[in-house]
Amino acid sequence: KKQVTVVGLGRFGSRIARTLYQLGHDVMAIDQDEARVQQMMGEVTYAVRGDATNEAVLRELGVHNFDVAIVAIGTNVQASIMVSVLLKTMGIPYIVSRANNELHGNTLERIGCNKVVYPEMEMGVRLAHGLFNPNVQEHMEITPSFGISRIAVPDKYTGMALAEAGLAGKGDRNGLLVVALKRGDEVTLSPDPDEKLLVGDILVVVGWDNLVSKITTT
Amino acid sequence: KKQVTVVGLGRFGSRIARTLYQLGHDVMAIDQDEARVQQMMGEVTYAVRGDATNEAVLRELGVHNFDVAIVAIGTNVQASIMVSVLLKTMGIPYIVSRANNELHGNTLERIGCNKVVYPEMEMGVRLAHGLFNPNVQEHMEITPSFGISRIAVPDKYTGMALAEAGLAGKGDRNGLLVVALKRGDEVTLSPDPDEKLLVGDILVVVGWDNLVSKITTT
Ligand SMILES: Nc1ncnc2c1ncn2[C@@H]1O[C@H](COP(=O)(O)OP(=O)(O)OP(=O)(O)O)[C@@H](O)[C@H]1O
Ligand SMILES: Nc1ncnc2c1ncn2[C@@H]1O[C@H](COP(=O)(O)OP(=O)(O)OP(=O)(O)O)[C@@H](O)[C@H]1O
Q1: Where are the domain boundaries for CATH 3.40.50.720 in chain B?
Q2: Residue A119 is nearest to which of B72, B119, B143, comparing CB atoms?
Q3: Does B10 sit in the ligand 2 pocket, CB within 6 Å?
Q4: Atom of ligand 1 nearest to the CA of A83
Q5: CATH code for B3-120?
């Protein structure tokens, strides 16, 4: 159980704060906007209105005692940098800040942020890559040409056994391995080659991207 | 090669537009803000200033001929909905829109968007889940308690064979399966139980989250 401060309760910060609280951590959520603070009441340990660029405010809130701080201020680059510097100066061991662009992110790294994130950019890249692969629900890259995909079983395979569909057998020979099958809420690890695929099944496939894309193209 | 229109060139939309163009598609990027349009010149097929809530503007740009439209307008919920309705009415086969919250997203689905995305919320959840698992580089959820993790080999296992570390053997018995090992640029699918783990190795592990977290905790 950790003590986390989240500064900035826009769409990104408010979701981080809520999720961390649900995961069992102590979360103090800070924003200068009263309405946004009100929306967090009961969804975090402590929601407080304040200007985080004001060191006195941060000290009064005991922020220097926290394990982790997340600076989720978005559009105001100056505030994002100032708050990150203040938190660093106050000795918080681990600071994650969000950046709008590479120059902003570079600056945050130089002032000592432990981790810089680019939420909209990262989601933009993911969306673009997944756009023309509608069966591919999610992709995790291992190398630029090898990864793991969560795939909705294409119509052409429904009713077939995994082996029939060419999806069974040792991955290391085919360069492609079905590691799990999800049907409703049930998950089977290393499913049998004779498992029949049904409409709605989700497959988790590991392998070379070009081989995986053969599965998902009609 | 597809024809894609991206409306809204904030951090999310501009990244989608650029990435799709780099992937070889034809991209028309539209925004009402001249400066944002200028920044896209040369990075997409065609960048144009315009108010996308104006049907005449969209028709003039030939938007009705496109395969896919992405509505990446952020804060202006009304504009996001209006533009999505216009594009739907004009017959674009596949429309992806971004939403600020569930009510906004629900509305977009009801008016016929094929896919609704919540970029900041999704990244907020990912960040919160990854925050106290620094060895876990990325996680893909299959169910709320079962997933795939890309893990940096923890120090306690370096020098050990996979079997020695308790990481070999049939996943379906242990509820945990190492599906790939990445060393430098080399990837091995279904690595041997006697493979010795080295500093810097990356493991791809599938299984129950609580078992996977046992690996990554010291
Ligand atoms: N000095 C400050 N002190 C406290 N909160 C601040 C400060 N400056 C900005 N904020 C808050 O940060 C939050 C997020 O910033 P903003 O809404 O500008 O970015 P955004 O990129 O639109 O956010 P998101 O994409 O997460 O919705 C806002 O709720 C804002 O009130
Ligand atoms: N009617 C419209 N026609 C064209 N562009 C529009 C219209 N309304 C808004 N936009 C553009 O949409 C873009 C994204 O919207 P906005 O900046 O409000 O959202 P944001 O959530 O901060 O974006 P991001 O998080 O992607 O940076 C802006 O560049 C804005 O000019």
Answers
A1: 3-120
A2: B119
A3: yes
A4: 1
A5: 3.40.50.720
